[in-house]
Amino acid sequence: MQIMETTSAAAASQSLQPPGRIAGAGAWAGPEMAAHPERWIWRLSDSEIAEIDAAVAAFKATGTPMEAISEDTFVLPTLKPKVMRVLDELLEGRGFIMVRGFPVEKYLSRNDLAGAAIAYLGLGRHFGSLRSSNGKGHLLGHVRDLGMDIKDGNTRFYQTNRRLEYHTDSVDIVGLLCLHAAKAGGESFIVSSMTVYNEILKRRPDLLPAAFTPFPTDRRGEVPAGMKPYFEIPIFNWYAGKLSAIYLRHYIEEAQKRFPDAPRLTPQQYEVMDLIDTLVNDPSLHLQMAFEPGDMQFLHNHQILHSRNDFENWPEPERARHLLRLWMAPPQGRPLPEVFAPRYGSVTPGDRGGIIVPGTMLTVALQAN
Asked: How many CA atoms lie within 13 A of 304 on its CB side?
């Protein structure tokens, strides 16, 4: 839960910005988390794995398309309460968790990628509705180097082996399941955007107002009907007593280059982005973790920024670094201001986020394309 260090709740509800520091479990520092992995790593037990395996088999037996997976068709009779506690930790606590020990190699060794995908989709479906993570309508995304160039205005970082800048995805919760790790590199980095806000407040409070002004951001060619090829939203948004962040600097700067009609950024906006980039890359603030096959990482985008190192792939294509991605919208999600609607499609909890463009058909694709 976010806790405001202030004496006037009434004043907070009327402020464009939080009236003070953000306190609570969501405002963490990386070294403390690294020292206590038991706080954020859920190691699946044998009985928990068996329950997931049984749910996969039962779902397959129904013949239901993976796109239609639900809590009723992927039943977790004893795990459900724990999954709900994890969801509460994502939404109201630290904002992240790593689920470790899912036997993905067992599924892959018997050429059952569909089974691994069903397990992942089913678990994610208990967190919320599944959202399309690209204009093709993929409910199950593939994070894999496709040899594409980020300089292409229609390319997104997950299609390359490039280091990802710290960013948020356009949905409440993002999940990653590791199928194959890289030969070298590819480590994940996360940082609390609440802690980043607190550091700006401490070091350069004069720059904070700029972070609450709209930043035009490139849609990378995935443009919803009737929308501009960019959307405008502040990096930080204070609404209904909660601070939320949305940020990807590369796409902000690309909007300045590619779209002459996009409002020009001010010197203060550039300066606050420079400070944010300094802070997120500070080892005293961020947390580094390496993916192992079977790891599932879940992040609450409104309070976590995430990044990834450059990586080197194995020479064999079948061993290439490959992660599956889910975007999820929980019905218990926080209130969001209307400024999110042009990007999220809606601000209704449980029915927001994702990318829908003309011709999008929701699908579960088992191959990266």
From this structure: 31
CA quadruple 262, 242, 11, 269: dihedral sign? negative
CA distances from 329 to 1, 71, 170, 207, 326 (A): 18, 14, 10, 32, 10
- Give the chain's domain count: 1
Is 41 a domain residue?
A: yes
The encoded tokens of residue 294 equal: 């079977």
Q: Between β-strands 141-143 and 236-239, what pairing exists: parallel, antiparallel or unpaired?
A: unpaired
User: CATH no. for residue 263?
Assistant: 3.60.130.10
List, for the chain, all residue ranges whose pLDDT scores fall below the cut of 50: 5-15, 150, 155-156
Number of Cβ within 10 Å of residue 346's Cβ equals 15
The answer to whether 308 and 188 have CB atoms below 8 angstroms apart is yes
Predicted local confidence at residue 143, as pLDDT: 87
Question: Look-up: residue for tokens 């443009």?
Answer: 223
Query: What pLDDT score does 320 carry?
Result: 78
8 domain-assigned: no
pLDDT of residue 309: 84
pLDDT in tens, 196-233: 999 999 999 999 999 999 999 999 999 999 999 999 99
Q: Where are the alpha helices (DSSP H) in 178-302?
A: 193-203, 208-211, 249-258, 267-280
What is the structure's pLDDT at 14?
Answer: 38
pLDDT at 10: 33
Tell me if 217 is assigned to some domain. Answer: yes
Range of the domain at 56: 37-344
Residue 349 lies in a domain: no
Sequence length of the chain is 369
Residues 59 and 49: their CA atoms lie apart, in Å, by: 15
